[in-house]
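To close the chapter, one final illustration. This time we ask the reader to focus less on the individual chains and more on the assembly as a whole: which components sit near each other, and how the overall shape emerges from the parts.
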Amino acid sequence: MSEIAKDLHTEHMVINMGPSHPVTHGTVKFLVTLDGETIEDLKVEIGYLHRGFEKMCESGTWYQVFPYTDRLNYVSPLINNVGYALAVEKLIGIDVPERCKYVRVIACELSRIADHMTNVAAGGLELGAFTAFLYFVEARELVWDLIEMLCGARVTTNYVRIGGLKNDLPDGFKQKTLEVFKRCRVLWSDVNKLLTKNRVFIDRVRDVGTMPAEEAIAYGFTGPCLRACGVPYDVRKANPYLVYDRMDFEVPIGETGDNFDKYLVRMEEINQSMRIVEQALEQLPGGPINVDMPYYRWQSKDDIYNRIDSLIFHFKTVIEGIKPPPGEVYLAVESGNGELGFYLVSDGSGKPYKCRVRPPCFPLTAAMPRMMKGRLIADIVPTFDMINMIGGECDR
Amino acid sequence: MQLLMFYLLGLGAVVAALIMVTNKRPVRAAMSLIATMSFLAGLYVLLDAHLIAALQLIVYAGAIMVLFLFVIMLLNIEEKEGRLAGSALLWQMIAIAVVGLVFVLMVSVVKLSDNVVPLGEAAALFGTTRAVGKMLFTEYLLPFEIASVLLLAAIVGAVILAKRRIDDSDQ
Amino acid sequence: MTQFDGKGSQVTVGVPAGRLKPKRVRRNLDLTLWEKLYVFEIIRGMYVTTKHFALNMLGFVLPPRGKKRSVFTVYYPDEKVVLPPAYRGRPVLVMRPDGTERCVACGLCETACPGHAISIVGAERENGERYPLSYVLDMTRCVYCGFCEEVCPKEAIVMSSEYQGLAETDRSRMRYSKEQLLRSEESVKGRIEYIRRIYSKCNY
Amino acid sequence: MVADLIESVAKIVFIFSINLGFFAPILGWVERKQSAVMQDRIGANRANIGKFTIIGLFHPIADAVKVLTKEDFVPAGANKFFHTLAPFICLVPAIATFSVIPFGGQYELFGHHVNLVIADLDVGILFVFALTSLATFGVVLAGWSSRSNWSLLGGLRASAQMLSYEVAMGLAIIGIIMVFGTLKLSEIGAMQENFLHWGIFIQPLGFILFFTCAVAENKRVPFDVPEAESELVAGYFTEYSGLKFVMFWMSEFLEIVTISGILTTLFLGAWHIPFVTDAMLLSFFQFAGPNGATILAMLVNIATFFAKVIFFIWLQMTIRWTLPRFRYDQVMRLCWKMILPLSLINISITGLVLLLWIK
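The assembled structure is written out below.
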């Protein structure tokens, strides 16, 4: 009998899944060892989008980091802007005005909506549900229209400044937002009808990519993927920044951390984020949007045009950069994928001495082999979509 | 017209069968076998046996041969270039001679019994689904059922073979 | 921040109870037999898509008010989206009415540019006024961040709303010279007004 | 004899021109446009001659020009012979299948008997199965001969899926064949003259099962696992380009038409208009004289048939753009654990009903 068994041995097939593969969109490579269609082993190779973000930041002034942060998680750039600004403000020890906080919250949540919509939609797309994808892309375009109205660009926002914002909310923003949300909710319910109870979709995502809560924490999961495991951890609640403690919203949590939970958590978070934006718009106070600390701000145009001292000072701050006191700081915000942390070290000069980013999707990507071993090759698709690995953020 | 078709199809079947036997590349051999099956189906059509022709295509060409191909592809059999040994060649020649003899015999038997009675009234229904079905479920019911038992035995055997392999790998 | 009681679900240190409002998403959406049968859910999904189909087809014939059709897409070269005043397109230099540039070659934009896209060679006119002898904007490096506009003390460089013709097949053609970048004051009037409004006061 | 020949040639030319000349190119356009409108988009509309774009209808022409001028690429290490043969094996059955589908009834025209089906085979429906089972080889060979891992996986999935669904498809229509008592598609069509005798009312379960199997056999979403672009790049035709690539697509589109034709014939009353019998139709066109009336009735029947075919095409397209795709093992589970038992139940119930009530 052993003779037959020897003859009937199976050979493993090693496949390069990516970087130029539809599911890895050029930013990651899976080295998959297959037995038939079952994954025996999976190695993740990242680094296809490495730009040297951290080093680039250290070569520019504190201000010049902002355009680079746009490109971390390029689907929710405003959260990255806010995260970096908050970290620098914590380093300096300034507190931004109330109105600024509210506007930042609005900007963050709009970004989060766009991020989750893109993620859920792309997840559907790669499972073949093209129509659901385009419904959410339509909604996302509407949200991006709002962001464009606010910042002047859809993706490369560069909106937040140290100690404030580039500009205030434009006229008619509130009304436009409410209109957009109305349409978004319609599209949300359409996608919900197309996917949430569709058995084909449920079969594909349920019980795939499960993660026990302990292991998820051990891996360093944060954000929707951790909440899907049943851990109610959200930086906005656990460690409220800006004015999140004044907002009334719920933290959706799942149970087993499979892809279906991640999907449901994200769908629910879209709703919660819309609620937050509406509340913030309702409570929005008047007043300034920037701190009145000229040393940490680029000078206003009025001052530059009319006052020679301001002009000189302007030259000084632009060329030398603002100079936070020496020290180090870590500050995390809740980005679309989870805890986006900035660890900054200042040596008192105009440039960051060290600018380290804790990308939320790096631990998630690292857990791919754990989630995928023994599953089918088709399961890579929803799992990889639902951890929402963004090359710009993961590789930096 | 019909005769011409017969010769064309027959020639095709024979040539494809020869290719099947002589070709050393398994996939090509399998494909030639499929071609043979298809030509045979054509011959059945000429005989007015449409049902048998369709079944030939569905069962043999469509289902069984796909499995053959499947297996060949999965096993990734190397194309062997080795030559037949002398004694094997001799045996082959003998085998071909015997088969040829049998063929000649069969043809002559058919030729001799050429003046069999025409099919008569049954001819109108010959080869139709209804006729074949009736035959199958009345006259030939027992052989039909026995054949299915044979298939069942084959399935059980296959399962046992596959099962034992798993046991071995467990140990 | 987060701890485990060993059973795998309850947690959180540092978050006062009550502030956190966890909401369980229904995981085991109990599929009824009706939903398990595939067919009816498929029909429901098809109802959604067919509704969109029908409404959009109707929108081609009877467009909704203020729009040409009810679908979302814009026929790009024939129709264009209305850009908000905040939109940041290609940076351009502003020209005075007499044809000279406003820029005084102070070099602030060059310094503030995170991509090092701008390189200026300054010179002086006979009347002692500085001007850029050459002003090269390398659009392969520009990231459209708008810092140049934000730091410029002379309103000399602004982000126009131009977005066409930015792509080239040759990098050398994407290095724009001063002459290619100069725009009349009229054509960027709206943007200059917008800048004055948003950057005029640091603290409004 | 001559009249027979003319009739045959006319029918063949008609079916070929409507399939290859109308459906195959137009379906690509339909798929783009329908999906676009469903998804709040406009869809391809840029191909133009001068200023005319006629809602993107030039795109099939542009596509044809494109594929004809594209490099016909055979990957290194591929088996050239089978790599070239595979798309033909796919395409030929797809074209040939329509020859047994009746697109109209039988008429007496100028004293000549006209039967609107190219080959009125006694085993009509089995012929369809025979040919579709041959199409499997095209897919398998395409996957194997490309020498690409993705293609191989796609080919394996395709062969397993098509084989399984062939079985289920065969069992799913047994019910309707039992009811009508014949395999001849023209007879089945003729029996559905009465609206209430349409197959869909007699065999609703059989209809759903057969429809599912047919979509699976054609490898369309949600059963497109052999070519799932997010998993296997493009499955068995990953390594194809140019004309050969299009032949796979054409065979897929033609199979959509064929499936729609079979569904129409078996379940949706073939060429009959609801509540209108052939005699009523003839008497309605009485003003045109006997032959004229027959011709008009014939045209109406053909139009009805193709209207139904177009309805089914629309239905398949809508399904394709609504659903996500299954996983490979789920496809198999659906076939062997749901469709197969259900079709067996369907057969038993049909048999019991026939035995107890009808006989």
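Chain C touches chain D at residues 39, 42, 45-46, 48-50, 52-53, 56-57, 69-73, 75 (CB under 8 Å). Residues 1-14 of chain C have pLDDT under 50 and may be disordered. With these observations in hand, you are ready for the problems at the end of the chapter.
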